[in-house]
Structures are given as C-alpha cells and as structure tokens.
Amino acid sequence: MGEQETQIHSEVKKFSHEDLKDITNYFLRTVGRGGFGTVYHGYLENQTEVPVKVCSLESTQANKQFLAEVRSLSMVHHRNLVKLVGYCKDGVNLAVVYEYLPRGSLFDHLRGKDSSSALNWRMRFNIVLEAAQALDYLHTGCGMLHRDVKSSNILLGQNFEAKVSDLGLARMFSADVNSIITLSGTPGYIDPEYQLTFTLNEKSDVYSFGVILIEVVTGERPILTGRENIHIIKLVKQKLAQGSIEDVVDSRFEGEYDMNAVWKFVELAVMCTRDEAANRPTMADVVMHLKDCLQIEEHRQKGKLEPSEKSDTNTSSISTPQSVSVSFAPDSR
C-alpha cells in the first residue's frame, strides 16, 4: 500500500473492483451520469444503500491525483457534507462510494423529476442555509474549494436535510486532458472571471452558490432556453431594476413568504453573482446574511411581531458587512 493510501482515514474502506460488482449487482442499476462517469445504485454487506460513482479518468495525471483527492475527502467532516464511505483504486478501475441520500437532489425538487412535489419557500431556505454552512466550512475550516457547486450537487436526506456532494471530483477531472470537461464546473454556474483567467478561488464557489440562490427563489434553470438563451441572473436583474419582486418569485410559493426576507435573499444572490470576484461576499458573509433573512421569516411564521414591530422590520435594513452592501432594494418595503 502506498504512502497516500496509508494516510486515508481508517473509516474509509478500500474496495476492489470485484467488491463493486457485488455491491452494484454487476452495475445493474444506473442512477446518474456526469462528466466524471456513471453512478450506480448498490448495497453494502449490511444492506446499507450507497451510490457508487465509477470514474472515467483517462489521463495519467488525473489517475495519480485520485488518491490525493480521496485522502483529502477522508479528512473532511461536516454534517452538511456527504460522507465518503469508501473508494476503489484497482488497476485502471477508479470509483468512490458515498452515503445514500434518499430524497435526491435540490435540482430534482426545483423542476426536475420531482417537480410535482416542489419544496416550499421555508424548506428551500433551510436547504441553502445548510449548504452554505458546508461551503463555509470548506473555505474557512479546510482551505478547500468545491469547484462544481450546483443544485444537483446538493443532496437531500429523509427529512430534507441538505448535504453537499461531489467535493474533489471537479479538480480530478479538470486535470484529465481526455475528459469532456474543459473547465472546472458546469455551464450556467461557472464564474465569468474564471472563464477569462482559468484561476479558481473561493469566490468562484460563491458565484456558483449565488446562481443556486436564484434558482431557489425563481424555480428556474440557470440558463433559460427559448428564442435566445438567457442566463437567469440577467433576467432577475432586469426585473429588480423595475422594482418588481413578485415577477421573480416562484409562483408555487403561493404568497407564503415574507417580502422583506425575499428581497434580502435576492439581493444576496445578486451580490454573489457579481462579475468581479473581489466584489462578492465570502461564504461566511453569505451564511450570516442568510441567518438574518431567516430571522425575518421566522417572525412571520410564528406571528410574534406586533403591528408596530412589523412596520419597523419592513423599513429597516438588516445589518450587513460593508463588503456585502446591497443596492437592489426598493425605496420602501
């Protein structure tokens, strides 16, 4: 066993390719595909469900990086990050095995295969707050980037708790010259500054997360197709410039939200998706701002505010770091 493998956390199990055949019943059931390869459904010996992501890495450089990434993932622990169960490096066969999240992805519940059971505003809010806390942990606690933040990489547990997945895969595949991925990330979520410089930093993850915030409040895909493709960010900014928030909010909320909280939420999304990385907030700022929004929403739901207090809340500005000052709010709320 090589030095890198001896440094992988002991709780992370090494599987052989034959083990994966047993776990997946010879790769019988496909549950997903991506630039990294194919995801199969499987069961461990104790009947625990797991997704098995079989990596289609072809370059020597990416193959060598695989164990380094697995080692990094084995050291990362947060309640809102998908847990790495094990890995396979058996000759040319590479795979990662994760914990299973039964509710699928945030993408599925926004307008994908589970759109018939769309999440309400409060559920979506809780999910993005939990995901933001996971990314903040990566940035400030681990000094790591995710590199492919998107709604399909936010998975949901039985009680709709959020867990961020696929950490590290984007870096492996950006190193694979034969991969179909040419940039780390997914179209619609890629930092425009990164597309010019090919240099990733924490603010690249922030940009991608901002796109998710806009997805959550609108229920729309990042890139709207029609007579001409338009990014949802551009469309939202156009509507905000007209002072209209109702035209932005997903109609499936049926008015069940606090208008002030939604304005703050959308303003945060706009800040995260600024073209210049230096003008975006940090993930720590994002978490703080989301918690401020949550307080407003909780007051609405619990009905704790008296009429005079409601007036104060609707006309006052939530305390926000100067680095994340907002500019799209209407004159009065």
TrEMBL record:
In the N-terminal section; belongs to the leguminous lectin family. Belongs to the protein kinase superfamily. Its main location: membrane. One of its GO terms (molecular function) is ATP binding. GO terms for biological process: defense response to oomycetes. It is found in: Cell membrane. Pfam families: PK_Tyr_Ser-Thr (PF07714). Residues 315-327 have a biased composition (Low complexity). Residues 25-292 form the Protein kinase domain. This is Protein kinase domain-containing protein. It is a single-pass type I membrane protein.
